[in-house]
Amino acid sequence: MGNKQLGIAMIGAGAIGGTTAAFMKQAGWKLEMVCKHQETVDRISKRGVHITGMKGEHTVRMKAVKDISDLSGSMDFVFLATKATDCLNAARDLLPVLGPDSTVISLQNGICEEALAHILGRERILGCVVGWGATNKGPGELEVTSEGEFVIGNMDKGADERLSIVQEMLSAVYPTRISQNIMGELYSKLIINACINSLGVIGGVTLGELLSNGKARKIFFELMREAMSVAEAMGIRVEPAGGGKLDYYQLLAGTGILADIKRYLTVRVIGFKYRRIKSSSLQSLQRGRRTEIDFLNGYICDQGKNHGVITTVNDKVRAMVREIEGGKREMSLRNLQELIP
User: At the topology level of CATH, where does 184-339 sit?
Assistant: First the structure.
């Protein structure tokens, strides 16, 4: 059993951070939460985090502060659950509360680990994939919307005794698997987010509405093909997504009518299963916040440029989402026509 007196901080009180912190605290881990807004600090400190949805109803009180500088001291483990757009600023603020042996675990969408390593030191960073979903319904009001797992790993694939401790912490929330190919796991989720999150913003609809649209499905596969070409150039072996159910190599293999039908049926099944879910980027826009496009499709575009891989459709998606963020374009399924190769 891990030492539950370790100093642990959760940076970010949104859907994933708040839910993870609440169940870790409920399991007996000593934990403090940093919340961006004072209203959330007050709510969590006085009344606790209220969780509903697929894990039942829970209310968990814990120490909450507004700024990283307000944490009680040096932290042994820090879970970084801000939006990807905020993670680098948060990392800089973390430096004074990290000791030489402190560990930082990124819970962001996209691949932020390498950028975080430049600020915090590569030896401090562990990668993590969040394979379940939750929704922020207001300060301290969170709903678990889909079940799944965590996947954690060392960025350099070496043996790492910290992983078993983090595994025990996160298993209080959902089963946690240690991977020897965490970059392949992170990239696998990146592809899904680059398709679902970004097209959800462009169309302005739920996942079910999006993937029932033939144009969206065609674009989905083009984004995926480009992403896999970039992964090959980077030397990344992409792991299957969805707990092993979505193997990109098999999905994209083959040509002709039968192969196309198999691909489209796979995506329709995904769309039906998660038909009521809005992408997190769409939720961000509806709250007046920026999306994480530069850490999703933008990562694929930038790495494609670095490795000489053409990413035409991902480039168009990034540009279109930026136009929507800037108020220069409305969200609509009509936008999809411009993305078809």
Answer: N-(1-d-carboxylethyl)-l-norvaline Dehydrogenase; domain 2 (1.10.1040)
